[in-house]
Amino acid sequence: MTVKMMTAHEVTQKVFNKEELFILDVRNEDAFEDWKIEGENFEYFNIPYFELLDGVEEILEKIPSNKEILVVCAKEGSSVMVAEMLSEAGLTVSYLQGGMKAWSEHLEPVKVGDLKDGGEVYQFVRIGKGCLSYMVISNGEAAIIDATRMTDIFIDFATSKEVKITNVFDTHLHADHISGGRKIAEQIGATYWLPPKDAQEVNFEYAALEGGSVVTIGNTAIDIHALYSPGHTIGSTSFVVDEKFLLSGDILFIDSIGRPDLAGKAEDWVGDLRESLYSRYRELSEELVVLPAHFMIIDELNVDGSVAEKLGTLFAKNHGLNIEDESEFRRLVTENLPPQPNAYQEIRETNMGKVTPEEEKQREMEIGPNRCAVR
Amino acid sequence: MDVTKVLDAKGLACPMPIVRTKKAMNELESGQILEVHATDKGAKSDLAAWAKSGGHELLKDTEENDVLKFWIKKG
């Protein structure tokens, strides 16, 4: 039968719409165990492509005849080979264009709300890795928060909206992905903001983002009010945009909270994390819509694909915000932590400007899930 | 090391390094050693896993100037 190509965008829409899909993942078993395409109604079968070089007959019975089938590999080549073999065996199958490499880099823009003056806030969902970036647009200007390495997507999006990017922020020094913030700022001539306490070792110029800083985007005042909220890193800073949205960085997620150990100081920073979550956030309006820098599991996505929830709802439902006992909280965030993100030390050094790996190397460093949270 | 055959898979993208390696291995006798040169980074984990599942032994692997080299003993 036929072999079709499916794009990461098409797969993302299937995730958002909770469609069914049968994924035949032909990567190594450990790669599959570590990280795969997640969807609520997706089914999986994993067998490395090199087990299929002599033919696909032995797996035909594992493949359902009533479901759409997607063959996935690391970079595309092997999935095309296996898809063609299945096609010769009479099946209609698709392969994922660009493989897991493309999946890791795909960003899906989703509008999360309007601003009082008619501006908009967009969330860029990096569906494969769980990273979330933001663009705040108002009166011809735009700010970007926690941009990923795929800088063209943000620049092209701003162009399509006919807005000029004036300010680029990172809520903290990231450990799970390489920031595109500095590159965008340099390319466009925008200001790049970073919390100075996270920037002690960086070797580039930046604007110091400190608690209380107010940056205005557009002609109408869309205040991006920075709120010092250490814990995940010592400099972690949250933003309140337009008195409506709380960009919580890696401090607070929908169903989890930030882990304090990725810069190596869990014991020192657990107190800061508790104060940020249990005191500073408590003083904010419960009506604020929390927009975090990550999601961990697909259940955290809303029906439109966005990741957002009212602060009041999180105070009621997020387990990490409901641990009365301080020593129990300390245990949760310092003991039995999940594995650290792939190459997180190298990623931090890249974000400090200490090393500049080639693009292929940067891709490899970012492979896998973000792992920035504890539940 | 007594290498029976050298396979040049440089410049080839996945799945070709493994496809060629498998073919070359078919021509060897049990106990003989195949040396493989590749530039596809994915070849490292894939060749190791392939050798294991096929009952072959990956004796050694090196990386020099972006060229990955493997020595595999046929099982």
From TrEMBL, chain B:
<dbReference type="InterPro" id="IPR001455">
    <property type="entry name" value="TusA-like"/>
</dbReference>
<feature type="domain" description="UPF0033">
    <location>
        <begin position="7"/>
        <end position="31"/>
    </location>
</feature>
<comment type="similarity">
    <text>Belongs to the sulfur carrier protein TusA family.</text>
</comment>
<protein>
    <submittedName>
        <fullName>TusA-related sulfurtransferase</fullName>
    </submittedName>
</protein>
<dbReference type="InterPro" id="IPR036868">
    <property type="entry name" value="TusA-like_sf"/>
</dbReference>
<dbReference type="Pfam" id="PF01206">
    <property type="entry name" value="TusA"/>
</dbReference>
